[in-house]
Hints:
Elements (H helix, E strand, L loop, with lengths): L2 H27 L7 H24 L8 H15 L7 H14 L5 H23 L10 H4 L14 H14 L12 H29 L5 H17 L9 H9 L5 H33 L17 H4 L2
Amino acid sequence: MTRRRLQTAVLIAGLLSLAVVIARTVDDARDRALPSAEALALAGGLALVSILTSGRAWVTLFRDVIESAGGRLRFEAYYYLSQLTKYLPAGGVIQAASQVNLAASTGVPLGRVAVAFPVSVVGTVAAGATLSAGVVLADELPTWARAPALLGLAAPTLLYRPFMAAVIRLARRYVPRVPAPDRLPSQRSILAYYGWALASIGAAAAAYAVLLRSLTGEGSFAIVFFAFALSWTLGFLVVPLPAGIGVREVVLIAAIPEIDAGQVLAASLAQRLLAIGAELVAVLGSNLVARRALPDPGPETASSAPVRATAKERHH
């Protein structure tokens, strides 16, 4: 499949899935009180920050092979496009496949992308787990439920590059097609990804806290923030569900029991709609900026994208 056809297929599938999710979300929210206009505006801005920083995180893992600013802009634009597919059934699997294939269609070696993707998953989970550790401060929860959250503080140790390389070498013993560990991003890039992921999840959590606090005066902003980070991370790990829908709501209701479940769900519905809107803005805006910075070379010259591969990568 050519790059242009892949783009078109991902865009159509993503827009169709968004239409279904938006219709269902609006229907669910019809009989619920919604946050104030001020809260919606602030949360919408935070939702946009969340998606943009997640895109910047993904690009960070490839700064050593994408040389030009225009190439990075197009690479980032393809990332935003891939995010639309996470609302499809089995969304996590489909979204991962579209993210990897769209990244490789820019000319970055597939082996390089195949190694960077699990690094991004580990970095995202580590960032989410770090923020989730704050749930330990929720006095309303029993000690047995709060204590495990502290393990999140140790999650960044998973980002140690030699550890990642050892895991890959072990995997290659059983699956020889797994790319070699020398294609791992640098330690600096891995840590930079973690920092951007913290900002992305933190912005999403702050958006939810703003929305919920607009609906009720109960609950601490900080506890709601940490509870959302936990729910987001667990939803991210449940790959088969589209965008973690369902899991996140259940975790939120359990993590902040002092707030009425109806208000928790109302804020969640509003946050989901704002996140979808932010993703659409990111897709449209990034494509416009990328086209102005770097004219589309067309499917027949996709391999000429401004990337630099090492000699070893060119032989794989």
